[in-house]
Amino acid sequence: MAQGLKVLTAVLPQDVKLETKEYDLGARRWHATGETLPDAELESLKQHDAILLGAIGDPSVPSGVLERGLLLKLRFAFDHFVNLRPSKLFPNTSTPLAGRPAIDFVVVREGTEGPYTGNGGSLRTGTPAEVATEVSLNTAYGVERVVRDAYERANSRPRKKLTLVHKNNVLVYAGHMWKNIVDKVGQEYPEVTTDYLHVDAATIFFVTQPERFDVIVTDNLFGDILTDLAAAVTGGIGLAASGNINPTGDFPSMFEPVHGSAPDIAGTGKADPTATILSVALLLRHLGYEQQAARIEEAVAADLEARDGSARSTDEIGDALAARVAG
Amino acid sequence: MAQGLKVLTAVLPQDVKLETKEYDLGARRWHATGETLPDAELESLKQHDAILLGAIGDPSVPSGVLERGLLLKLRFAFDHFVNLRPSKLFPNTSTPLAGRPAIDFVVVREGTEGPYTGNGGSLRTGTPAEVATEVSLNTAYGVERVVRDAYERANSRPRKKLTLVHKNNVLVYAGHMWKNIVDKVGQEYPEVTTDYLHVDAATIFFVTQPERFDVIVTDNLFGDILTDLAAAVTGGIGLAASGNINPTGDFPSMFEPVHGSAPDIAGTGKADPTATILSVALLLRHLGYEQQAARIEEAVAADLEARDGSARSTDEIGDALAARVAG
Ligand SMILES: CC(C)[C@H](C(=O)O)[C@@H](O)C(=O)O
Ligand SMILES: CC(C)[C@H](C(=O)O)[C@@H](O)C(=O)O
């Protein structure tokens, strides 16, 4: 986080005054007070132009507590319906894929519906007669707005290609609704080529033909799975940035690395801050600072190209990138 | 399918009389009669020791019709709760992964529950006010039996390792039930090491460290996704075999390649029958013909090793494998 702010400060024009406020949320706070995201803090967060979220989570906190009480709570409270996750294979980074395909796509993951709504339950919990359900909730309202956002993005990219990923041969109700909405909205974008893949088939193409993708639009859970896989094939989770975007501007959008918190190396100076720094670029682009965003992305590409394999500390990488964007 | 039967016939001991009955099901039948799986045929299928299913599907049939009316209908009607999908990187096959990691794991995918139950619906279909749901149904009864099967398999393998894959930080009801049942059943298998991965993280390890997996147990949808990815990293969907198993023997088990029907190359002699032939091996193992199953798998490994990249027809591959298992 410190490196992200360092680069943000370095890249901003002199006349832009940056005001930041730090919120102490996450595992430490939960252990100390039992709180994840108190209402007062949620209200206060609402006042900002944007949020930069440090990776959260710690094995000492029961699974789901921080995810649902903090991260998902923010995504839902601020109606972050566009979960934006670009995937690009930068030069000189390692990919597990032989042949280094040219990967440059963006996943537009729905962020406020699907199986993530916390809708479900368990009956006779813990007994041999237990029944547990999870309900995926999908609305035309929610799907259409994210599909439209994805088409806008596809339309503004050189290849103009949109792929819907779902599983409409099994999840027929949600799947057909998604498909119909894509077909309908797609008519407004005659220059965009649209195709469809089942989620299982999509994972195959992620490793055998990732260059075929340009913009992918998909639901919350499929997007979660696909973007981790995308990060893995494009140099690892240490480089993957994401934005939780509310394009209406009614609420602040939130930017975060795709990776988790790696508490085992916290404070050792071993963490790569690049994913956070690339998230700062997405934040700047969202706020209209396109030039500055591009400058960070170019700096990261140049920095990766210059890496010679010798280990640098978190701080050193941050310094190097801050120097590049300032220069 | 013809090659599968050819190899099956070749490998069986002289004194075993093989009786087969062919069922004309799939796209052609549906076009001709509108039927997918009539009750009479379902009854008749019940009488067999096992079923070998040819890949079904055709773009001329609306998505979901054959999948739900035939394939899933059989899996559910015959209570195929163990969907068994071994993944092995054979020598001399191509993998998209650099470094050719040693991959040899098996996914035990639950086959009769989860998001595959057809439970869901749509309200105000086709309007801007549409709401569509998909309900994942999970029972302790259903989860425990497949978890137990997975532990049995892990316990009989040299590495004795079981990984539960789910998403219990978000899908808390189903996820916690799965986790609790794995913890409980695991106590009966003290020699088996158990771990847990979220499904998104699991996809990362599939491409960066697939050698870490031995037995994976997971739900119906996650298993669907993971096994396509597994097939992709182990030489492609052309080699991936699967069994839809009812270990109680109350109903016949069903064996099928993981891949689809490739109607574009049907009849051209270009399809690789290896996945079907490996499915025959799983069928034989299930019926107690362990030696014959192993013979087929060895033949496939030897055949792959001997391949020099020159194209062979479907028939030639079948002949070569039949000759190897007979010899
Ligand atoms: C931590 C978890 C709730 C989260 C998600 O599933 O969305 C994470 O995996 C992500 O992709 O941002
Ligand atoms: C065809 C489809 C219904 C099926 C599934 O989703 O189970 C297939 O993808 C598979 O993995 O066998």
From TrEMBL, chains A, B:
Obligatory cofactor(s): Mg(2+); Mn(2+)
Keyword S-adenosyl-L-methionine among UniProt keywords: no
Keywords for the protein's UniProt record, in alphabetical order: Manganese, Metal-binding, NAD, Oxidoreductase
Pfam families: Iso_dh
GO molecular function: magnesium ion binding; NAD binding; oxidoreductase activity, acting on the CH-OH group of donors, NAD or NADP as acceptor
Residue span(s) of domain Isopropylmalate dehydrogenase-like: 1-321
Keyword hit for Metal-binding: yes
Matches recorded under NCBIfam families: PRK03437.1
Identification of the protein by name: 3-isopropylmalate dehydrogenase
